[in-house]
Amino acid sequence: MIRRICDEYLADCHSLEIIDIYQRPIIARSDQIVACPTLVIETDSSVRRIVGDLSCEARVLSSLNIRQKK
C-alpha cells in the first residue's frame, strides 16, 4: 500500500526504505521506532511518524496532507 501511494501521489519526490526491525534493531532504536508498523516521514525541517495500520489509504493520505484522487 505505501509503495503504491508513494508511486501514485509522490512520483519522483520520495525515497522509501523498508526496514525489518528484527534484522536491524539498531536502526529502529536510532529512529525511535517503538511500534510496528511505523512510517517515518523525514523532510529538511521535520520528522513525523505514522504508527499502526497503514492499509487505509485515506488515513495515510490524510496523515501526509495529501488529497485523495477521485
Describe this structure as you would to a colleague.
- It is built from three helices and two strands, in the order H-H-E-E-H.
- The protein is an alpha+beta fold and 70 residues long.
- A two-stranded antiparallel ribbon has the order 1-2.
- The longest helix has 8 residues, at 2-9.
- The model has no long low-confidence stretch (mean pLDDT 89).
Break the fold down into its secondary structure elements and pairings.
Layout: H1 2-9, H2 25-30, E1 38-42, E2 47-51, H3 57-63
Antiparallel strand pairs: 1-2
Structural class: alpha+beta
Radius of gyration: 13 Å
Largest sheet geometry:
2 strands, antiparallel
The number of E-state strands comes to 2
Strand residues, percent: 5-15%
Helix content: 25-40%
Give the mean pLDDT: 89
Shape: globular
| Strands in their spatial order, largest beta sheet | 1-2
Tell me the span between the first and last alpha carbons.
17 Å
Order of helices and strands: HHEEH
Total of helices: 3
In the predicted model, the low-confidence regions spanning at least 5 consecutive residues are: none
Summarize the entry for a quick read:
This protein is α+β, with helices and mostly antiparallel strands. Helix content is 30%, strand content 14%.
Could you name the key traits of this structure?
alpha+beta, 2 strands, globular, 3 helices, 70 residues
